[in-house]
Amino acid sequence: MKIAAAAYPIDWLESWAAYEDKITAWVAEAAGQGADLLVFPEYGAMELSSLAGAEAAGDLEASLHAVSDRMAEADALHARLAAAHGVHILGASAPVWEGTRPANRARLFAPGGGSEFQDKQIMTRFERETWDVVPGGPLKVFDTALGRIGVLICYDAEFPLLGRALADAGAEILLVPSCTDSLAGYWRVRVGAMARALENQCIVVHSPTVGEAGWSPAVDENCGAVAIYGPPDLGFPPTGVLAEGALNAPGWTYAQVSLDAVRTVRQQGQVLNFRHWDEQQSRLKTAKLCALD
User: Where are the domains positioned within the chain?
Assistant: First the structure.
């Protein structure tokens, strides 16, 4: 299959039509390049807060509500585009209210009309201390015509047991939408994504927000580079990097990937991280403190 990952800029939108035109153009471009799976980033949907006006967009709490209020329309748009182009789309994540506080939610759309969502599992400091965004539902593996897909939203990719749970449940592709405001933040997610590709011997797709949106207290600064990773092993590049975009450069990055290659490396790789994972458990019992004078 061909995967398209977005380095996505947050834009001020004057109307819903402007948002619809933007998303439609992005999807049409990737589909026109033959992409089967399109991945948008974490909190890319925060640009929808501009539709509520400058005052709401400039207030953190009001902007969270404004975006959540638009997600039914945004989901319907993505569903139509997935069907029209015959592609799978991971839409940009958004704060979505179902209780007293919002979860950070990304939804996967299939061309046949099906959709399902993944909520972020572990909140970053700004989500906990400033935004008051809360963990949502459990981890899920999506069984699609392309294969079994899991989603680790940004910070979630930095926790190996989450990725392993998805791999154990059958995921061969992990999607990592991210939103980071510094080079250090971007590299934390990148290192996590590459590690998950190594230890689970799978494909990992990293899609970030990029650029500045000074009108938004939520996503005012965005730093990142899009990339698609595999295990650095047989049938994959020695770096593990299948494709990579330039830092802070908006646009799509594409990679042709093979799930047969994933299955082969899990069975016959130079190393067998996926198969040998459980051997860690017995070795952990032997760890002890050794004092040296």
Answer: 2-278
pLDDT class of 189 with cuts at 50, 70, 90? very high
Which residue intervals of 7-130 are DSSP H helices?
Answer: 16-32, 54-57, 60-85, 125-126
Amino acid letter, 101: R
* Residue 97 Cα distances to 100, 119, 280, angstroms: 7, 11, 39
Q: Which phi and psi angles does 280 have, rounded to 5°?
A: -60, -35
Alpha helices for 33-59 (secondary structure H): 54-57
Query: Which of the 8 DSSP states describes residue 148?
Result: E
CA–CA gap between residue 248 and residue 181 (Å, rounded): 11
Domain covering 2-278, topology: Nitrilase/N-carbamoyl-D-aminoacid amidohydrolase (3.60.110)
- E-only strand ranges, the chain: 2-9, 37-39, 88-90, 94-97, 102-109, 115-119, 141-144, 147-151, 173-178, 203-212, 221-222, 227-229, 241-244, 251-256
CA-based R_g, the chain, Å: 19
* Spatial contact of 203 and 228, defined as CB atoms under 8 Å apart: yes
CA dihedral 173, 101, 158, 194 (to 10 degrees): 30
DSSP string, 97-115: ESSSSEEEEEEEE-TTS-E
Q: How confident is the model at residue 4 (pLDDT cuts 50, 70, 90)?
A: very high
CB-based contact 186:145 (threshold 8 Å): no
- Could you read off the pLDDT of 44-62 as tens digits, one per residue? 999 999 999 999 999 999 9
Contact 259, 202 (CB under 8 A): no
Amino acid identity for residue 252 in this structure: W
